[in-house]
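batch job 7 of whatever, protein = Claudin
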Amino acid sequence: MKETLQIVALFLAFFGAVTAFISLHHHTWKVSTDYGNVIITSNIFENLWMSCAEDSTGIYDCWYFSSLLALPGFVQACRALMITSIVLGMFGLIFTLVGMQCSKIGGENYIVKGRIAVLGGVFFILQGLSTMIAVSWYAFNITQEFFDPLYPGTKFEIGDGLYIGWCSATLALISGCCLLCVCGNDSKEERMSYPFQSQRRGTPYTTSVISQQPNHYGRNAYV
């Protein structure tokens, strides 16, 4: 059962990392709204890297942002958080593959493997938090501009890229929590049973040896 949960957590984390990569490169983090507009000539959609304009025929043209420093601060922060999220996800996958009990990578020391798997779960949780902060921060700015009656620029709505990012963060957080619960309990149980395992493997355990020594004295020897 525990190995099954580890495998499920690994697959969830893998899909979380893939969807985070898809969300980062998705074109529609925000889409221009039709609300309040009578005549719509083109749709504008943006992500962290580029802005695109689509005409009524469905043909669109994109251009990358010319300067990083000219971008708003929250866009730069979201870029950094999403890239960090993908890197953390890769580390989490590597550590989880090494620390899984059904994996032969890293030997058969299950105490060390359990700790490595726990570290992989920590990476997945950090990945989920980074993605969640990035997409939520970006969505907050979209909604803030949308409901601001004095905002002079083009108003946008939440795009598909943000929903993909929220799904990615949820998968990463679930997988990280599963690994922490399962592998953390495994490590505690294995540490408690380690002396008894050593005794079965031939390593003498002091209290067991003393308790197994025969008693050559009768009751009258203590009188």
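notes: The chain has one domain: 2-27+69-202.
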